[in-house]
């Protein structure tokens, strides 16, 4: 695990020693350094408050729990509604009553009890072969269960957080019984056992192993920007589902204030800064995501994919149904 403060290596003991400084704020981040360091540098330049960061791929909530009242953590940054809700359920977050956050972030993209706040959005899109799927032939998530696609769909594991969020949204919109029937239909249409990440599914389309896949929108940008993967993206059309109905299912990257944060005031200032116009534009552009603050321009590449209707289902509802979605995946044997 890397420990970074403004671009320099920092030991854990040093981070603890700085915890109560009036001009510092400590962030535990599950987001990669290249995504957030430009934001922290801008924040420090504007406010004079130094941002100390610990980066990790996993385990930060458990670390905060183990550190207890001695934790230097002020802010947690993570991805996916399920992961940020796990922090809330673990009891390590605290409410933030901020007029700025409420003004910048629509209600369905923040916790009803102010325990977490979205920072960026990504859609759960459908990718379809340009050569083997006619435009307009698939338009909704429900279409994924149509028997016409038998043996033609690839997905990653059904228990991955990104798919669980989608499945939970299907339960929320269509009810548990209909969602289970749909998931059984999707499973029967799989070309192979669920495997790999979102980009691996698009690669499989390019290689002719399947014709349709499900993946987050920002991966389209990542593939287009990678010379080794551009051919994968060029082989597919990106489809925004359910545009004549509820809209495309959305997920987030987000943040939460840590309970007992030693630099609480500075932490709130950072959280508010991250939802402002300048930070929202930088943060969304660097990872091909969508800003959460209305009115902030999309990056040129993301805008080139077209506009869409987004599902405004409160993400708290998706978090509430996560356990039901996991059980449903097991019941239909999706990963078998």
Structural notes for this entry:
- The protein has helices at 12-17, 33-47, 60-67, 81-89, 99-104, 161-174, 176-188, 198-206, 218-224, 230-234, 264-274, 277-286, 300-304, 315-320, 322-331, and strands at 3-5, 8-9, 24-29, 50-55, 75-79, 93-94, 117-129, 153-154, 212-216, 236-239, 250-258, 290-291.
- It contains 15 helices and 12 strands.
- Strands 1, 2, 3, 4, 5, 6, 7, 8, 9, 10, 11 and 12 form a 12-stranded mixed sheet that branches.
- The longest helix has 15 residues, at 33-47.
- It is of the alpha+beta class and 336 residues long.
- Helix 2 runs antiparallel to helix 12 (277-286) and helix 6 (161-174) packs across helix 7.
- Helix content is 40%, strand content 18%.
- It folds into 2 domains: 3-121 and 250-300, D-Maltodextrin-Binding Protein, domain 2 (3-Layer(aba) Sandwich), CATH 3.40.190; 123-248 and 312-331, Periplasmic binding protein-like II (D-Maltodextrin-Binding Protein, domain 2, 3-Layer(aba) Sandwich), CATH 3.40.190.10.
- InterPro entries: Ferric-bd (IPR026045), SBP (IPR006059).
- Residues 1-22 form the signal peptide.
- Fe cation binds at residues 218-219.
- Keywords: Iron, Metal-binding, Signal.
- One of its GO terms (cellular component) is outer membrane-bounded periplasmic space.
